[in-house]
Amino acid sequence: MSLAWLFPAGLAALASLLLPLLIHLARRDEQRLLDFAALRWLAARPRPRRRIRFDDWPLLLVRLLLLALLALLLARPALQGVADAAPRVAVAPGVDIASARRAVPGEQAQWLWLAPGFPALDAPAVPASPQPLASLLRELDATLPPTVPLTVVVPPVLDGLDGQQPRLSRSVRWQVIEAAPAAAERGEQAPPRLHIRHDQAGAAALPWLRAVAQAWNAATPLDIAGDEQPFADADGIRVWLSARPVPAAVQAWAGAGGRLLVDARTPLPAATQHLPLWRDDGGAAVIEQVTGDAGQWLRWAAPLQPAAMPALLDAGFPQHLRGLLQAPPAPTRAWAAAMRPDTGAAAWPQPAYEPVPWLVAAIALLFLLERWLASARRRRGQA
Question: Which residues pair with 295 in a beta bridge?
Fold first, then answer.
């Protein structure tokens, strides 16, 4: 443990210690001479030398100590190496607490939730945090001193990963425990909603698209209207089943990242490149990607009729189409056994401990003591 001063110039306030010394010298008890009749018969003696003498030593010492503590408070003392070295056990939300305590011995360890703020395990169960679990691990590792042992208790399946193996500055005991019975499971990604605009010939494809939406178990119905009606919703997938060119507003929406699927009869912008994305078992293209100045579109390679597109009759057609239209979310779930943190990260410097609360409490107590001693002195003087 070492001591450092964050504001050494504050020690200059120690010069104020001269003030109570001067005050006590100026206010010391005066000796008054009393004349009496026989004074002239006494032989004159040389006066004794006046010595420096302080009255009320307890009051003086309290005042000196009070000013010294104020100077120390201004100088901001900081202690290095006083952090708590007790082992830590971090428990991910959803773990069965009773099973975790049986599997991880350690009466001296501090148990805490692997959640923002790292509250104590005695606190009410915290819900799953939107902050990634890997980020919480790195934050906890950075806040602990390098010598503190760390145990992390996690369920068999981890959520909230960020695609990278956690790398910490210490070796971690990785304990996998069965999840609590009431732990909620993450739901599947909701299917996309289709917004369809069609002409008279494109209406023949509507029964097939309705069957696709039914296979997806879509919660919202299809948005279907003629090609003279504009698209009203900016979300979902826009399907253009018309021989007319795609409106400029829809092209701009697709260029900004929107998902657009056009009919095989739809005129395409100039200077576009075609790339087949889906072929049926016979090798015929089902959907192709069109890339140009207006962004990336998807295009039916043939009319949506079984005679021209046999893939419509395949049982896996709806899910294959959904995989092309709806990009899968980033992988944030993995088996906990495969996500044991690696070591090798640099240890974070730990902040020094500033005993400000203790200094403030001592100053307050000394101030009360000084006031009591000063009032007692005045009472003695009045008596």
Answer: 292
pLDDT of residue 182: 47
Closest CA to 112 of 97, 130, 99, 102: 97
Question: Three-state SS string across 204-246, please?
Answer: HHHHHHHHHHHHHCCCCCCEEEECCCCCCCCCCEEEEECCCCC
Which of 193, 197, 207 is CA-nearest to residue 305?
207
What amino acid is encoded at 301 in this protein? A
Instruction: Kindly report the number of other CB atoms within 10 A of residue 272's CB atom.
Output: 15
Distance CA 272, CA 295 (A): 10
Three-state DSSP state, 311: helix
Structural domain boundaries of the chain? 2-29+52-82+353-382, 88-182+334-343, 194-325
Distance CA 94, CA 157 (A): 10
Assigned token pair, 74: 């201004």
**Could you tell me how many residues make up the chain?**
383
Q: How far is CA 323 from the centre of its chain?
A: 33
Terminal C-alpha separation, the chain: 52
User: Is 172 in a helix, a strand, or coil?
Assistant: strand
Rounded Cα gap, residues 383 and 379, in angstroms? 6
Dist. CA 131–CA 241, nearest whole Å: 42
Give 10-residue mean pLDDT values along the chain (383 residues). 80 87 68 59 60 72 91 86 77 84 80 87 63 84 86 83 79 81 54 90 92 82 90 86 93 88 91 87 90 86 92 90 74 73 75 84 92 77 54
Q: How far apart are CA 9 and CA 259, in angstroms?
A: 64
Tally of CA atoms within 13 A in the half-sphere of 361 that contains its CB: 4
Q: Report residue 148 as tokens.
A: 């503190």
259 near 298, Cβ under 8 Å? yes
Dist. CA 211–CA 222, nearest whole Å: 11
Of the candidates 271, 227, 225, 223, the one whose C-alpha atom is nearest the C-alpha of residue 246 is: 227
Pairwise CA distance, residues 260 & 257, whole Å: 9
What is the layout of strands, in order, in the sheet containing 194-198? 223-226, 194-198, 237-241, 260-262, 295-300, 285-292, 273-279
**Spatial CB neighbours of 63, under 8 Å, sequence gap ≥ 6:** 20, 370
Do 141 and 345 meet the contact criterion of CB atoms below 8 Å apart? yes
